[in-house]
Write a structure and sequence with these properties.
Oligomer: single chain
Low-confidence stretches: 15-21, 45-52
Number of domains: 2
Largest sheet: 8 strands, antiparallel
Shape: elongated
Number of strands: 13
Length: 194
């Protein structure tokens, strides 16, 4: 009896912890009556919320009313929406992506621009034939949650289907890696070739 209670408790803890593992990524579906915007949940590694792996960043935030705020914050999450925390005169304000036009992060990697999306900002972490975007301002291709074909393509969620739509299926290596869900390897290989 005690073993089954322990297993049940571990399952509940796992389910509670898994709640914060995803970010909503918007995408558009063309229809005869116009584009329909939908969202897809993309896996986000848990270490983003770990203070050792998610240090405080210096941000310059441009709000929708064109006011500019400078702050230092970690990337935080409430429900499935990310935010930065602005402290001013002992009061705290959460700033969410939908309140901003753009956000800039000054990190070891330099100044990185973040574009507001549904539930996060998208920071370009890799430039190439396939641009890679992350929800945290750290230059690490493994944190990619969204991709873009060149500089003019739409930014879409990193999925096997979206990646194959860019790379095609003419190259045996790409097909094999897509089958094994090695999406980052496909991006690196494709960018090297192009």
């Amino acid at each position: 009896m005690k073993t089954s209670l322990k297993i049940l408790l571990l399952c509940f803890i796992g389910l509670y912890h898994a709640k914060g593992q995803y970010v909503s990524m918007p995408y558009s579906v063309p229809t005869p009556y116009g584009n329909v915007t939908m969202t897809q949940h993309i896996y986000m590694p848990t270490h983003y919320y770990n203070s050792n792996s998610n240090p405080k960043f210096k941000f310059v935030v441009v709000l929708k009313n064109d006011s500019v705020i400078e702050l230092k914050s970690r990337m935080l999450s409430e429900d499935i929406t990310m935010y930065v925390l602005y402290n001013e005169n002992k009061s705290k304000r959460k700033i969410f992506p939908d309140e901003t036009k753009v956000i800039f992060s000054n990190s070891i990697s330099g100044r990185i621009k973040g574009l507001p999306a549904d539930s996060c900002w998208l920071f370009k972490v890799k430039k190439g034939a396939i641009n890679c975007y992350s929800s945290v301002p750290m230059i690490d291709i493994n944190s990619t949650i969204a991709i873009q074909e060149g500089d003019t393509g739409k930014i879409v969620a990193l999925t096997k289907e979206n990646l194959q739509g860019i790379t095609g299926n003419d190259d045996e290596k790409i097909v094999r890696w897509l089958d094994k869900n090695k999406l980052i390897k496909v991006i690196e290989y494709y960018n090297e070739k192009n």
